[in-house]
Amino acid sequence: xxxxxxxxxxxxxxxxxxxxxxxxxxxxxxxxxxxxxxxxxxxxxxxxxxxxxxxxxxxxxxxxxxxxxxxxxxxxxxxxxxxxxxxxxxxxxxxxxxxxxxxxxxxxxxxxxxxxxxxxxxxxxxxxxxxxxxxxxxxxxxxxxxxxxxxxxxxxxxxxxxxxxxxxxxxxxxxxxxxxxxxxxxxxxxxxxxxxxxxxxxxxxxxxxxxxxxxxxxxxxxxxxxxxxxxxxxxxxxxxxxxxxxxxxxxxxxxxxxxxx
Length: 261
Known about the structure:
This protein has one domain. Helix content is 15%, strand content 52%. It has 2 helices and 14 strands. The protein has helices at 3-26, 36-49, and strands at residues 65-79, 85-88, 92-101, 104-112, 115-122, 128-136, 144-149, 162-171, 177-187, 191-195, 198-213, 215-225, 231-242, 244-254. Strands 1-3-4-5-6-7-8-9-11-12-13-14 form a 12-stranded antiparallel beta barrel. A hairpin with a 5-residue loop joins strand 12 and strand 13. It is globular and about 50 Å long. The termini are far apart.
């Protein structure tokens, strides 16, 4: 075998080994449920390290602690050349509420360990979303998608759509992704929902995003808010495709008004 042929074979062998190693590192894995115990530990850690938090319940905000939701649905995620992964939700998920200052709170939803979401909400003078961040793990990659809106005020009544222009940026993955959400938010007619034997008056707010940019598609999400701005029910239908692809159809239903802390 000539020197050139041996070199070519050697390079090819190295390429196969590297490709196999990359595939092993990046290949999607399964999911891990976050238990209520884990969520309570997370809440206590956040509470002990957050110097901006105030004691007790803020004005127009839910009581801090861990809330439990019954869950239905699944998601499909795909980044670049990686294979898609279908990930069903567990039957129960937790959400952690922490006080972040007067009239503001962070709502952390633990769909599972590989997909959590942090949203900072403020309620003065009315409900507004300060920032929304999705933290996902796909194989050995842990991208974070951060969304901000300007203006970020949500309607509380009226039924007339309010413009909600938003920008989403994905970082920490194999590529950077930027997309714009030229959406609308609409407050629907109030609904009564039973939560653990207690009737709760809610205001459903529907958000619709047509998405364009590095990814395209639609995102429709409705949250049923209590008077204290606790999410009682959440439904989401999301389908985004492009350099990164995400599909999600989920329903969360609060099972108790009393948080664990």
